[in-house]
Amino acid sequence: TDSYSLLILPGDGIGPEVMAEVRKVIDWFQANRGMRFDVSEGLVGGAAYDAHGAPLSDETMAQAQAVDAVLLGAVGGPKYDNLDFSVKPERGLLRLRKEMDLFANLRPAQCFDALADFSSLKRDVVAGLDILIVRELTSGVYFGEPRGIFTENGERVGINTQRYTESEIARVARAAFDLARKRAGRVCSMEKANVMESGILWREVVQKIHDEEYADVELSHMYADNGAMQLVRNPRQFDVIVTDNLFGDILSDAAAMLTGSLGMLPSASLGAPAANGRPKALYEPVHGSAPDIAGQGKANPIACILSFAMALRYSFAEAQAADDLEAAVEKVLAEGARTADLMGPEGGTPISTSAMGDRIIAAL
Amino acid sequence: TDSYSLLILPGDGIGPEVMAEVRKVIDWFQANRGMRFDVSEGLVGGAAYDAHGAPLSDETMAQAQAVDAVLLGAVGGPKYDNLDFSVKPERGLLRLRKEMDLFANLRPAQCFDALADFSSLKRDVVAGLDILIVRELTSGVYFGEPRGIFTENGERVGINTQRYTESEIARVARAAFDLARKRAGRVCSMEKANVMESGILWREVVQKIHDEEYADVELSHMYADNGAMQLVRNPRQFDVIVTDNLFGDILSDAAAMLTGSLGMLPSASLGAPAANGRPKALYEPVHGSAPDIAGQGKANPIACILSFAMALRYSFAEAQAADDLEAAVEKVLAEGARTADLMGPEGGTPISTSAMGDRIIAAL
Ligand SMILES: CC(C)[C@H](C(=O)O)[C@@H](O)C(=O)O
Ligand SMILES: CC(C)[C@H](C(=O)O)[C@@H](O)C(=O)O
Question: Which residue numbers mark the site Important for catalysis (chains A, B) (predicted)?
């Protein structure tokens, strides 16, 4: 059979620990489902900086371009806080996103029934929550020029540029509409068209793509500040949310926290199809590198494992395998398996990172 | 005695109704506390557009510059949704902010004990919540140039510019530190210094002002996406939050919604002291114009009344009067007076906008 090429970049902090559990899952699918993965490994973030003075080497970048999918753990940590902007761990991640042209960042915010009480929101507000934020990832204020710190009239001024072209907006809108068709069929687009011209263009292009190509999908528009409110007030009103890079960064984190269990949430960043028909793709958990608990076997590997499930679905069209892996996760949660981050007020004994991985394998 | 000059701009939707209740409160203070208010009234937003084709006339702008304080109701409505960007109701508000140089927007998010169950968050997460967001209001991406929709390489591109000078950052930082000194003494500054150079400068300047002038205040820094998460997870960890115009727009709305009762939240926008020592100032409720309920006597006047209480405190140094007015509001809430927006699942009979105003006057 065809083999799937994967580049694993564990990164910093708890990245290597959670990735070790994904390795077990990959092995299981190879042993039991006749899949073939061609796995290589590389450095990103602080780990890459330590090894060769840059948060992503050109070799690793080239490898990432060549594989079917990249799996990333997490980047960053206090050790790197005072590095120059240009070599901060985050730059490695941003370089991957930009050079692979991963324009559509999919961030599901799903509330697992067994964990609904972890949310700071009332159970009846978040139970069954299942929204998907589609964030534009390769443009906007993250990458716009001019940018930098300049001197003007005797003082410094910090400048960044929010920039969106019609085609950049159109392609992420199409991604959102395509995803909505496989879900509840509703897209809400968020910007600040009342204040920003880039938001006016955003709204106009999303509406046009809708009217011309996706009239079957329900489209609404919301100002991003109201969007933040509505996510807090009644998040279940949403199906798919599409928004720009910066709003997406903030709103998807707010949405993630609604579920109360950040250690559970995966993400996929997708680009255009490569020559083999598979999209350029990078998968990573939403949680950070959590340096405070790194190396102690306390980290929750589920977000990273579910990121691999997204890879099965979006890169390899192995929908059944993805479903099975997700079901295995739900099963162990329903059985009460909990890593330290999932300890509620009722207490209990947490299991380790690797024990959680083993439980999921057993459930498969 | 000295008289206080006030310009009242009721604006659109429920603006006029809630402002009518503030008028009663003003009358009460004149009749019972020997204060003298010199009140004028003008148009803003859609109401101003209807009257003279612009969302704020030059005359009204000049009046706003001349008075001690402006009280604004709300602007906007579906009737004006398709107006050109340059004459949208919001532009009237933005012009006031910019030309009066109201750089510090104070948005308290306070959870009233009697209303804690209205929050979508659990009572134990929000009970007693009392945070103050200080948002920069006259710069950043709201006003930065270049901006607009241009054509490049045969397609349109929407551009806005995020721009902050050292002095713009310094003055809003000082406002936040000054306010923190009168509160719990803690400031958390939020930006995206990991991605934006304007955020790097922001962080650096806030730290410098702290170290040189406010070492007694506790200062921390947080990325804005994490800030959004932390507001949802555990909002009571914050005392004062200081952030830029766009992050402030989104984060303050999220914070407002944590309290569950938007109809309760006031705001103040302050500039530099005028010749008479009073700061340039505009006060307005956080809620919008709510066109769906306008003219029905259903609106909650409390946010607007509490905005006037902020005027008493920050413009007129009438701290006792402000305290009394706030206490009157708490009292009527504790007694069970509820406008329609404050009807919980337990039901009850809502009172009208004007009945709520009367109750507050009676409690004074
Ligand atoms: C680490 C950082 C650069 C990144 C971002 O701002 O995009 C992160 O917050 C995210 O959302 O993936
Ligand atoms: C009405 C709009 C222009 C305004 C803003 O974006 O600042 C509003 O959302 C606010 O927060 O006061």
Answer: 142, 192
Please work out whether the CB of residue A90 comes within 6 Å of at least one atom of ligand 1.
yes
Nearest protein Cα to ligand 1, atom 10? A249
Instruction: Calculate mean pLDDT across residues A116-131.
Output: 94
Mean pLDDT of A103-131: 94
Whether residue A323 lies in the annotated active site = no
Hey, which of A173-187, B259-273, B274-288 has the most confident mean pLDDT? Answer: A173-187
Length of chain A: 364
B341 and chain A: CB distance < 8 Å anywhere? no
pLDDT reading at B345 higher than 90: no
Whether residue B81 has pLDDT greater than 90: no
pLDDT band per the 50, 70, 90 thresholds, residue B32: very high
Statement to judge: residues A231 and A274 lie in one domain:
no
Spot the catalytic one: A50, A211, A225, A323: A225
A214 is catalytic: no
Respond yes or no: is residue B130 known to be catalytic: no
pLDDT digits (tens, 9 = 90+) for B301-318: 999 999 999 999 999 999
Q: How many domains does chain B have?
A: 2
Q: Check whether the bond before A10 is cis (ω within 30° of 0).
A: no
Exposure class string for A123-149: b at 16+ Cβ within 10 A, else e: eebbeebebbbbbbbbbbbbbbeebeb
Domain holding A265: CATH number?
3.40.718.10
Does A184 show up as a binding residue in the annotation? Answer: no
Residue of A126, A137, A160 to mutate, testing the B interface (most B Cβ within 10 Å of its Cβ): A160
Q: Tell me, in angstroms, the distance from the centre of ligand 1 to residue A249's CA.
A: 7
The closest of B286, B253, B294 to B15, measured between CA atoms, is B294
User: With helix as H, strand as E and coil as C, how does A85-147 read?
Assistant: HHHCHHHHHHHHHHHCCCCEEEEEEECCHHHHHHCCECHHHHCCCEEEEEEECCCHHHCEEEE
Asked about B27 being catalytic, the answer comes back as no
Known active-site residue B24? no
Q: Element (H or E) spanning B361, and its range?
A: helix B353-363
| pLDDT tens-place string over residues B107-130 | 999 998 889 999 999 999 999 999
| B266 and B330 part of one domain | yes
A211 is in an annotated binding site: no
Contact A167/B at CB under 8 A: yes
Q: Is any atom of ligand 2 closer than 6 Å to the C-beta of A225?
A: yes
Whether B101 has its CB under 8 Å from any CB of chain A: the answer is no
Residue A1 predicted with pLDDT over 80: no
Instruction: Search chain A and give the residue with CA nearest B229.
Output: A254
Question: For residue B73, what is the DSSP state?
Answer: E
Note whether B197 contacts A149, CB cutoff 8 Å: yes
| Average pLDDT rounded to a whole number, residues B256-272 | 94
> Residue A336 pLDDT more than 70?
yes
* Residue A55, Cβ density class (10 Å: 0-12 exposed, 13-18 middle, ≥19 buried): buried
Which residue out of B12, B192, B244, B280 is catalytically annotated? B192
Residue at a domain's end among A241, A258, A275? A258
Q: Is the pLDDT of residue A273 over 90?
A: no
Burial (0-12, 13-18, 19+ Cβ within 10 Å), B305: buried
- B253 CA closest ligand 2 atom index: 11
Question: How does residue A250 score in pLDDT terms, banded at 50, 70 and 90?
Answer: very high
Q: Among the atoms of ligand 2, which is closest to the Cα of residue A223? A: 9
Nearest bound ligand to the CA of residue A286: 1
Residue of A120, A265, A267 to mutate for B, most B C-beta atoms under 10 A: A120
Q: How far is CA A97 from CA A20, A56, A92, B89, in A?
A: 23, 12, 9, 38
Tell me which residue has its CA closest to atom 8 in ligand 2.
B249
Same domain, A333 and A216: no
Identify the domain containing residue A363 by its residue range.
Answer: 1-108+260-364
Residue A305 lies in a domain: yes
